[in-house]
Amino acid sequence: DSGVTQTPKHLITATGQRVTLRCSPRSGDLSVYWYQQSLDQGLQFLIQYYNGEERAKGNILERFSAQQFPDLHSELNLSSLELGDSALYFCASSVVSLEGFTGELFFGEGSRLTVL
Amino acid sequence: AQRVTQPEKLLSVFKGAPVELKCNYSYSGSPELFWYVQYSRQRLQLLLRHISRESIKGFTADLNKGETSFHLKKPFAQEEDSAMYYCALLSSGSARQLTFGSGTQLTVLP
Predict the structure, then answer these.
(1) DSSP conformation letters of A45-77
(2) Which of A5, A22, A51, B88 counts the highest number of beta carbons within 10 A?
């Protein structure tokens, strides 16, 4: 499967802990986007990387950080976790850069984080 | 700032009935609007975009700039249309970002 892959699918942890979510974009896609999906707020854009560089930031907390590596996979690091961080975290990719983005994103299946 | 509002979290219709999923937006520039869909156990995927003026799986959506709306419509709903639907707005300019609404869960009853 050459689609967007995310690991882990499910993660349960305790408050105050730190987790790392991993995403591999579709083959050939240079842009990676992270979204948080919660019951109350729908899909919230967190951050975008293009070819290893941060390109756009959304509603990402300071406790969260991300990076994109030379092989184009990306990691989202969530630290000092709180109960409210429980959500489904999606990664998406697109082939073009920020300026040429046409609006079509290819999503992974998501990583469901539960903070107890 | 851009905003997308989907006023209905849940919407239920009977099979064969018309369905309309509402979407309103707020954006000062020239918007491009999209509908994304997530069927059960499938990934979120693009359903249609307003600039292509296409009908996908019987769904259409018209951009109404006067009412700042982009409602998704289908004249005869099918059970397989049951899914989560997200309206999204793509901003113009050099930083083109996709902003999603909160989504509407559509259930088509038999």
Answers:
(1) EEEEEETTEEEEE-S--TTEEEEE-TTS-EEEE
(2) B88
From the list B34, B49, B99, which residue is nearest A45 (CB)?
Answer: B99
Q: For residues B62 and B71, is the Cβ–Cβ distance under 8 A?
A: yes
* pLDDT mean over B33-39: 95
Look at B98 and A105 and tell me if their CB atoms are within 8 Å: yes
* Contact across the interface for A42 and B100, Cβ inside 8 Å: yes
Write out pLDDT tens, residues A34-72: 999 987 778 899 999 989 999 888 889 999 999 999 999
Confirm or reject contact between A20 and chain B (CB < 8 A).
no
Query: Which residue of chain A comes nearest to B40, CA vs CA?
Result: A109
A104 CB near a chain B CB, below 8 Å? yes
Least confident among A77-81, B51-55, B82-86: B51-55
